[in-house]
Specification:
The complex is a heterodimer of chains A (about 350) and B (about 525). With about 350 residues, chain A is an alpha/beta fold. In chain A, the strands form two sheets. Chain A has an eight-stranded mixed β-sheet, with helices on one face. A seven-stranded mixed β-sheet of chain A has the order 3-4-2-1-5-6-7, sandwiched between helices. In chain A, helix 6 crosses helix 11. Chain B has about 525 residues and is α/β, with parallel strands linked by helices. Chain B has a nine-stranded mixed β-sheet with strand order 16-15-14-13-7-12-11-8-17, sandwiched between helices. In chain B, strands 3-2-1-4-5-6 form a six-stranded parallel β-sheet, sandwiched between helices. In chain B, strands 9-10 form a two-stranded antiparallel ribbon. Chain B starts with about 25 loop residues before the first strand and ends in a 9-residue tail after the last helix. The chains are: A alpha/beta (about 350), B alpha/beta (about 525). The interface between A and B is large, with 37 and 35 residues.
Chain lengths: ~350, ~525
């Protein structure tokens, strides 16, 4: 079956879903956005998370993948509607579409054209790049998307940077969002106006993250934390050395440690050392053994202050929902990714 | 050489709350009162949980009742457990916050108590790194405000305005701010003799509500509404601030205050100024408040006896049924005189004499023991100039309803054609609801306002001239009522107010919307 024939079939099935039944009853149709989720696997945690998000936001959801078992020029699809029923209601309260599409290898690069016909044009479209997403599908969809959510934890910071460069729309990165508490903790070292001067005097930064199965170097979370701080403070990569805004070297260490109660790659420690006046300024954040609290400490000479903060475990559905609702600019992420690119290029 | 302005932390850029609060101690006067346990400390806890408090933060309660630090912490923990927005409370967040909580027992007019307070503040500065930053929250009766500020200044714990990098001291004053124009002016004069306007934060918690702030976003963050927002298209505006509750133990307070002072002088007039003001030149405290003051000053006085009779209604609830329960009349409430003439309902026809709003009546109604709790502003648009669809009975279908509470949202009403062969019309509503669209809970008004006060942003607080303009509008009405120019109407509890309230708007061939 040609792609356009499958597309016509999808459209007909969608029309049938919203047509009145024999009694004249029509399902209440409510959609607030188009959620396009691209995944390498049909059944995965990522797909479950996307279903959660689509349900919570009332999204028309498209689950897009490539099936190597299909004819290379084929497109296969399933269409359904998911309805919610509020407590006490007799019938569905609101329903929205789910369209699962599997492309043959040769037509994967036409994904953008197919989606163009199916999305509700008056609503915002959000593309979420999941783990194992097929390169051809991503390369087709990303440039046209008005909002793209990456996850550097699965795609890698380098690939995220590459894709971010071809989209002019809003972008976000679940890995970058997942370290927002750590960014807040780092910023907190310098919130006190009397400590602000230390921000220009950072000499050393140590980031610790939980070991990953593949032992593939620094985790995306660790890389993004260093790149964020460097980009914000005007550091630059000079060959393998990071230098501060005045050109003095900053020693950066990323250390992998064994931790079994947090996700692989998740941050577990941060230390920033600087000199303020003639005293050593040491800021430290450690994820406690329960995995759910951060202990924050700031020592300046003989004085020391400590705090303890709760930090929930990473929840991808919550991160995607938070990102969709967020109005924050992508400028911070873009400058972080660009910094990471220069840093890698110097290594 | 790269330099960073001392007030800015570059690592805060792009975060949800870019403007970090400098280290400080929040001192709550009236700490044993209901507001502290119900709103203030739960609000502080929410700020701590969402990591919006500065690294150096402490909280001191100050009240007459003798309590130890531990007693106060324990009471506050119970209050937070009961009233916090995010429950159950997180032990790590609470323990960290509680470590910086203390209590000072003393009278508001006892100089020695302020010396004890000074000592405790210095201890907290050392222990919590609060560095001399101070926010004093005066959750006290209006007559205690002067004495507290006097003593704070005399004890040297509330210095004048700060320059960059210096410790700061701010004073938050709860309403009512005065009891009439003369007393408000006197209070302003006395406070401003000791403090700078930039240090004074007169709180009206309505301004901390998300939907009230959204009024400004709706008007000045969109382009489609502004061309309609004037006498050219608006026929009249209704502002309703309705409560289904009665006195709830506040009978004594109400006997001295009445609804005009409790609700209309502040909340209702603030809403009126927000929807009628011109666009400010910037989103900052003075620019926004300049425009609000202009709108308030353009209010046509309701001054002559004839004006007061024709444009104001006062009422008091009789017994009735509210939400299925029989409730007593106002005069049967505890601490209320059997012959009380205090109003629990007010309806007004306000006029704004400027180019934008000339000839557009603003109808305000506010009351206790009305049919339900609702705050709503409805813009009614002018009818179509020529009824093209003769078969239709709808001539004026368009209205924009801004719901402040509960079910916060915006609804736009317009006419549509009923399906079928004939041209028949029906009005429908496009409805936006905060809860549905954004899913998550909005912060409590007090959270927002406490944070703004601690960081010195007065945009959502009322300035001295605003307060005085509000009193200047209501004072002549209150004076005429005192002279019995307008009889006190009675209304059944659970209704939408007295018949006279309906007559006020019916004179123009209109009717109140049913919220």
């Amino acid at each position: 079956m040609k792609v356009s024939d499958t597309l016509a079939k999808i459209e007909a099935e969608l029309t049938a879903i919203w047509a009145p039944d024999e009694s004249g009853y029509t399902k209440p149709h409510a959609t607030t956005l188009n959620l396009i989720a691209v995944s390498g696997k049909k059944d995965s945690k990522f797909v479950d998370h996307m279903h959660d998000v689509a349900g919570r936001l009332g999204a028309r959801m498209f689950l897009v993948g490539v099936d190597p078992r299909l004819e290379p020029w084929a497109l296969d699809a399933d269409v359904s509607a998911v309805c919610s029923v509020e407590p006490g209601a007799q019938r569905e309260t609101a329903c929205a579409e789910r369209v699962e599409m599997r492309f043959g290898a040769m037509v994967a690069k036409r994904a953008a054209s197919v989606l163009e016909a199916l999305v509700e044009a008056s609503l915002p479209s959000v593309l979420v790049v999941g783990p194992g997403a097929h390169t051809a599908v991503i390369d087709s969809l990303v440039p046209a998307a008005s909002c793209v959510l990456f996850d550097s934890s699965s795609t890698g910071v380098a690939r995220t940077t590459e894709l971010a460069r071809v989209t002019s729309g809003r972008i976000d990165d679940l890995a970058f969002m997942s370290i927002r508490r750590w960014r807040d903790m780092a910023a907190r070292f310098f919130d006190d106006p009397e400590h602000r001067g230390a921000i220009l005097e950072i000499e050393k930064m140590v980031v610790r993250h939980a070991r990953r199965e593949d032992h593939a170097g620094a985790s995306a979370e660790a890389e993004l934390l260093v790149a964020w701080l460097g980009a914000r403070l005007g550091w630059r990569a000079d060959a393998a050395t990071l230098r501060d805004a005045r050109g003095r070297p900053v020693q950066v260490q990323i250390i992998e440690v064994a931790r079994d109660n947090v996700l692989p790659g998740a941050l577990v420690g941060l230390e920033i050392t600087a000199t303020l006046g003639n005293e050593v300024f040491l800021g430290r954040v450690v994820r406690e053994s329960d995995g759910e609290h951060l202990s924050w400490e700031l020592a300046l000479g003989d004085t020391r202050s400590t705090r303890r903060f709760a930090t929930p475990r990473r929840d991808d559905a919550e991160l995607v929902e938070r990102s969709i609702r967020s109005s924050l600019s992508a400028a911070l992420l873009r400058e972080t990714l660009e910094f990471a690119r220069h840093w890698r290029a110097g290594e | 050489m790269t330099s960073i302005p001392p007030a800015d932390n570059p690592l805060r850029a792009g975060m949800a709350e870019e403007l970090a609060v400098d280290p400080c101690v929040l001192v709550i006067f009236g700490a044993s009162g209901d507001l502290t346990g119900r709103k203030l400390v739960p609000g502080i806890y929410s700020l701590a949980k969402n990591r919006l408090l500065p690294g150096g933060f402490g909280l001191l309660g100050f009240a007459r009742r003798p309590l130890s630090d531990d007693d106060f912490r324990s009471k506050m923990k119970d209050a937070v457990s009961k009233h916090a927005r995010q429950k159950p409370i997180d032990p790590a967040v609470w323990d960290d916050l509680a470590d910086g909580i203390g209590y000072v027992a003393g009278s508001f007019d006892e100089p020695e108590a302020y010396q004890r307070l000074k000592k405790r503040l210095a201890e907290l500065d050392r222990k919590r790194g609060t560095r001399g930053g101070r926010t004093f929250y005066l959750a006290v009766p209006a007559d205690a405000v002067r004495s507290i500020v006097d003593n704070l200044v005399k004890a040297g714990i509330c210095p004048g305005p700060s320059s960059d990098g210096q410790p700061y001291a701010r004073v938050v004053v709860e309403k009512p701010f005065g009891t009439d124009l003369a007393s408000a002016r006197a209070l302003n004069r006395d406070l401003l003799a000791k403090l700078d306007e930039r240090q004074l934060f007169r709180i009206d918690h309505y301004l901390g509500k998300e939907t009230v702030q959204n009024l400004l976003v709706l008007r000045f963050g969109n382009t489609i509404f502004e061309p309609l927002w004037s006498r050219n298209h608006v026929s009249h505006v209704e502002i309703t601030v309705a409560e289904h509750l009665g006195m709830e133990g506040r009978g004594k307070f109400y006997e001295q205050t009445g609804l005009m002072r409790d609700i209309v002088q502040n909340h209702a007039l603030q809403l009126l100024s927000l929807v009628s003001m011109e666009a400010p030149v910037a989103w900052d405290a003075n620019a926004v408040r300049d425009e609000k003051v202009k709108a308030l000053r353009a209010l046509r006085p309701i001054q002559s006896a004839n004006d007061v009779r024709s444009r104001s209604v006062r009422g008091q609830y009789a017994t009735g049924i509210v939400r299925g329960d029989q409730v007593p009349a106002y005069r049967e409430e505890p601490d209320v005189a059997k012959s009380s003439e205090i109003e629990t309902f007010v309806a007004l026809e306000a006029r704004i004499d400027n180019w934008r709003w000339a000839d557009v009546p603003f109808y305000l109604r506010a009351g206790k023991r009305l049919a339900k709790r609702v705050t709503e502003i409805v813009f009614h648009f002018k009818p179509v100039p020529h009824p093209l669809f003769a078969s239709s009975t709808i001539r004026q279908p368009n209205a924009l309803a801004l719901r402040i509470q509960p079910d916060e949202g915006i609804a736009l009403r317009f006419a549509t054609k009923l399906p079928g062969q004939a041209i028949a019309m029906r009005d429908v509503a496009m409805d936006f609801r905060y809860g549905t669209a954004f899913g998550h809970e909005s912060p409590e008004a007090y959270e927002r306002l406490l944070l703004d006060a601690m960081r010195g942003d007065a945009t959502l607080f009322t300035r001295h001239d605003e307060v005085e303009a509000q009193w200047a509008f209501v004072d002549p009405i209150l004076a005429a009522w005192r002279g019995n120019e307008v009889p006190l109407a009675s209304y059944e509890a659970g209704s939408w107010g007295p018949k006279e309230g309906h007559d006020l708007i019916a004179k123009q061939g209109l009717a109140w919307s049913k919220p």
